[in-house]
Amino acid sequence: MGMDRYVADPYWGGYIIWYFYLGGIAAGAYAMAALASLFGDESDRRATRAAHYLAFPLVGLCGVLLIVDLGRPERFWHMLIQSETYRPMFKWWSPMSAGSWGLSVFGAFSAVSFLGVLVDDGWIRLGDAGIARMVAPRRGWPGKAFALGGAASAFFLGAYTGVLLAATNQPIWADTTWLAPLFLASAASTGLAAMILLIRWRLDDVTTPALERLEWADRWAMALEAAMLIVFALSLGRYAGPTLTRWPGVLIPAFVVPVGLVLPWIVQRTWGLRGAGASALLVLLGGFALRAAVIWIPPPWLLTPH
User: Fold this and answer.
1) Is 50 exceeded by the pLDDT of residue 1?
2) CA-CA distance, 81 to 172, in Å (whole number)?
3) Nearest-CA neighbor of 175 among 38, 305, 27, 4?
4) How does DSSP classify residue 93?
5) Which one, of 106, 15, 29, lies nearest residue 284 by Cα?
């Protein structure tokens, strides 16, 4: 049964939920790292290199998930390249075309940063020191330009999935303009949480003050996400109550808010860095539940004739 009797059901399921979720983590983490490169000190840059370990593998996995969901791999290729002329193809009016290029551009920035952090941490050794310094430039105008470009691509990817949902004309998705800001705020909170988990697990050289600043930034991101959830609910008007009190929308007030936003904030404020791992894990669980709830909306009750 389709979700709406006037528009086609997009048939989005598990692959797309994971694509939206992992893409948000990658975008949010990379954006925070780019901002640290522009405005932070050396300890912040050392801490946020966790984002460079995360972003490229996650966005690569997103590409695989998207291709698998399409069913035919050449469909993704045809969003970028004309099948007959093999020339680049960009349709600015098409969310799918813009998203494919956005994902590719972000993949290029994150790939260079991934290579750069592997060189910095000694996983890859380049014999020529000059070549090593050219990988993911960090200082001077080249470094700032690279960080700005990477941040722009990350912000685009973080918000894009919400824009894509609104462009489908499905009920609920098309009845609000706040999905993109909501997903962008969630990308920031989940990206920071993933960075904190990786730092606690593997990056022992990150200083305590730098990790505390990441937790501080994550609290602000959670607060922004909570504000966007309120605005999102208000924007639904008369559909807010039925949507958020029935499955799957009920996941948002019943799980996303208490488990993914309130409880992590309490853990951080109560236990500090001792609870950093637990708090980050809760944020990540809430971020997944948010995307699952939104993607499973519009709910079946909208099919009922009025």
Assistant:
1) no
2) 33
3) 4
4) T
5) 29
